[in-house]
């Protein structure tokens, strides 16, 4: 049966049975068309709004399979999507009719405890990394949801529970193995292809398929101090003001976030929070757990606690603590984010008002505290440019029914637009949805002065823009 797959020129290419058979003979992994057994078992994406409908999937077992998949796509002019963790809010790992390079089988993690390095394959999620590194009491900054892909989060920057003390995931990336559009395997490090390493530290999936990441590790855990207190959403303004005043003087060991969500009527939860809209103050102390619990105590006294989960707990448990809010392929999702140079009383009142007006119980309005080790890195030292703002406002629209898409997207857009009255220091691309919107505005905002250099590196490593299903950077002089 002939398969029709999208091309980089916007048309469709006919892939005969003979062509597919040749590809299957070349690789050591499954090559799946929609009618093949196993096609439905490909790693599902997080955002059900963008499930993707690929024409052909290559579920790679290793770097050689990626090389062969890229070569096949290039030789036939096929549009390519790359799926690592599949957590792209904008659906960048889920293009329709494309050839999908699926990295899910590539999830190995190798830890060199003596050198404090972890080598991680491109299909791993953060739970894979944490499990192996925590066996040695080590960690690298990752996400706040353990099911998030290592590749997408790192290549886009990477905020997690260690950000104030140790910075971003991309800041700990010391080397990468990359398959370029020419089928060549390159190593980017501090000694070879240094420009490529610079670009991978926040420049997205523009430069090839990263098959291995090497991260520097820090001593963390296995037990850390965790603060997790739930307050009534009606007290949001009071709680956020107290949170703001606390983080202004907190040491860099404290990473804190304030979010609003409606809790489910889960029998495992106290009845006080069943179907209850809450303000959740979450924090981690990167240091001695007992000392950390004392330092985090003020965050537990900001209002009327409905539930307090604060306690010393395994770092792996902290990393998994928010997983239930982000199930795969279940919720429609459309997010917007904006950096803020300050958090005024007026901005807090705005956030509190929006928290009371959320159109879906699954929607979150979040404020992340930044600074610390993030700001200690110069904006041009990595592709990730936004280093100075102390706060990130994230409006995470999540809802269940596709029929409600228009109303929920409109609410997120309106809230995002109105938030500009309280500061606008750019956007965070990993938290930016796209629905019939031009991506270049967000890309310009995110990369700022680094965009020109990124465009030059893109022209060097991907001059034809083969890898374009991403927050795309146009090659210089194209």
What does this molecule look like?
The protein starts with a strand and ends in a 17-residue tail after the last helix. Helix 7 packs across helix 10. 25% of the residues lie in helices and 24% in strands. The strands form five sheets. Strands 14, 15, 16, 17, 18, 19, 20 and 21 form an eight-stranded antiparallel β-sheet that branches. A five-stranded antiparallel β-sheet has the order 7-8-12-10-11. By secondary structure, it is α+β, with helices and mostly antiparallel strands.
Bulk shape = globular
Structural class: alpha+beta
User: Main β-sheet, in a few words?
Assistant: 8 strands, antiparallel
Helix fraction bin: 25-40%
Task: Map the helices and strands.
Elements: E1 3-6, E2 12-15, H1 17-26, E3 31-32, E4 56-59, H2 63-75, E5 80-83, E6 99-102, E7 109-112, E8 117-121, H3 126-133, E9 138-139, H4 150-155, H5 163-166, E10 173-179, E11 185-189, H6 194-200, E12 209-216, E13 218-219, E14 223-232, H7 236-247, E15 254-262, E16 277-285, H8 289-296, E17 307-308, E18 311-314, H9 315-320, E19 332-340, H10 345-356, E20 364-369, E21 391-399, H11 405-419, H12 440-447, H13 451-461
Parallel strand pairs: 4-6, 5-6
Antiparallel strand pairs: 1-2, 3-4, 7-8, 8-12, 9-13, 10-11, 10-12, 14-16, 14-17, 14-18, 15-16, 15-20, 19-21, 20-21
Helix pairs in contact: 7-10
């Amino acid at each position: 049966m002939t398969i029709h797959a999208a091309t980089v020129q916007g048309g469709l290419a006919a892939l005969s049975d003979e062509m597919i058979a040749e590809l299957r003979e070349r690789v050591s992994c499954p090559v799946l068309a929609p009618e093949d057994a196993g096609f439905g078992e490909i790693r599902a994406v997080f955002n059900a709004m963008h499930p993707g409908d690929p024409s052909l999937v290559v579920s790679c077992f290793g770097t050689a399979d990626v090389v062969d998949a890229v070569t096949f796509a290039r030789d036939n002019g096929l549009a390519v999507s790359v799926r690592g963790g599949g957590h792209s809010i904008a659906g960048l790992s889920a293009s329709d009719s494309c050839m999908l390079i699926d990295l899910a089988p590539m999830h190995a993690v190798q830890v060199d405890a003596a050198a404090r390095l972890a080598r991680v394959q491109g299909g791993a999620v953060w739970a894979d990394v944490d499990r192996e590194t925590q066996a040695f009491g080590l960690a690298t900054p990752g996400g706040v949801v353990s099911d998030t892909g290592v590749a997408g989060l790192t290549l886009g920057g990477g905020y997690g529970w260690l950000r104030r003390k140790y910075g971003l995931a991309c800041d700990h990336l010391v080397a990468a193995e990359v398959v370029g559009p020419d089928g060549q395997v390159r190593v980017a490090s501090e000694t070879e292809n240094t420009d490529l390493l610079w670009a991978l530290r926040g420049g997205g999936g523009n430069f090839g398929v990263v098959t291995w990441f090497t991260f520097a590790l820090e001593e963390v855990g296995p037990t850390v101090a965790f603060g997790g207190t739930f307050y009534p959403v009606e007290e949001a303004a009071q709680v956020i003001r107290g949170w703001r005043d606390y983080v202004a003087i907190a040491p860099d060991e404290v990473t804190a976030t304030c979010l609003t969500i409606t809790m489910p009527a889960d029998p495992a939860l106290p009845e006080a929070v069943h179907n209850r809209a809450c303000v959740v103050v979450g924090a981690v102390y990167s240091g001695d757990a007992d000392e950390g619990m004392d330092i985090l105590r003020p965050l537990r006294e900001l209002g009327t606690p409905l539930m307090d989960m604060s306690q010393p707990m395994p770092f792996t448990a902290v990393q998994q603590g928010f997983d239930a809010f982000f199930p795969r392929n279940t919720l429609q999702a459309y997010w917007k984010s904006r950096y803020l140079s300050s958090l005024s009383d007026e901005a807090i009142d705005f956030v509190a008002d929006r928290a009371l007006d959320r159109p879906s119980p699954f929607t979150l309005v979040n404020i992340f505290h930044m600074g610390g080790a993030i700001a200690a890195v110069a904006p041009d030292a990595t592709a990730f440019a936004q280093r100075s703002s102390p706060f990130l406002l994230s409006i995470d629209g999540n809802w269940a029914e596709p029929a409600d898409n228009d109303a929920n997207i409109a609410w997120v857009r309106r809230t995002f637009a109105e938030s500009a009255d309280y500061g606008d220091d750019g956007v965070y691309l990993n938290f930016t949805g796209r629905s019939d919107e031009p991506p270049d505005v967000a890309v310009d905002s995110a990369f700022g002065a680094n965009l020109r250099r990124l465009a030059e590196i893109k022209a060097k490593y991907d001059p034809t823009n083969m890898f374009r299903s991403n927050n795309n950077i146009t090659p210089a002089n194209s």
